[in-house]
Specification:
119 residues; mainly alpha; two-stranded antiparallel sheet; 4 helices; globular; TetR_C; Tetracyclin repressor-like C-terminal domain-containing protein; Tet_transcr_reg_TetR-rel_C_sf
Length: 119
């Protein structure tokens, strides 16, 4: 990933497959997830900054793939990423005038489990 990003900086004309393929595919998946949440009454897309949500979801994992010798991703880091995404969704709900949704944590506290990024 670091090599590919460096290449895109040096040769922006070669970034088409990433910009035209990778990013829209990820945004389509995120849109589908948010649409399902909206159908359940848990999100409001019209008030939601989808770019900020994408950055919140992808950023921590992308950083791990860019920094050599990064330690494995721990469950707590994943849970913080999910919490941040939920906060952005909740802020959008409040901005749209919807009542807040009270949720329970998705999983027990960090048990020290490790998850390795792909790649």
């Amino acid at each position: 990933m670091p090599g590919w990003l460096a290449h895109m900086q040096e040769s922006p004309e070669d970034s088409g497959p990433f910009v035209d393929g990778f990013l829209p595919q990820r945004m389509a998946v995120l849109n589908e997830i948010v649409a399902r949440a909206e159908a359940r009454g848990e999100a409001v897309r019209t008030a939601l900054d989808m770019d900020a949500l994408m950055e919140a979801c992808v950023g921590p994992f992308l950083m791990r793939s860019l920094i050599p010798q990064s330690p494995p991703i721990r469950r707590g880091e994943i849970e913080r990423t999910v919490d941040l995404a939920c906060l952005l969704i909740e802020q959008a709900r409040q901005a749209a005038g919807d009542a807040p949704v009270v949720t329970q944590p998705a999983s027990p506290p960090d048990s020290g489990g490790r998850i390795r990024p792909h790649g």
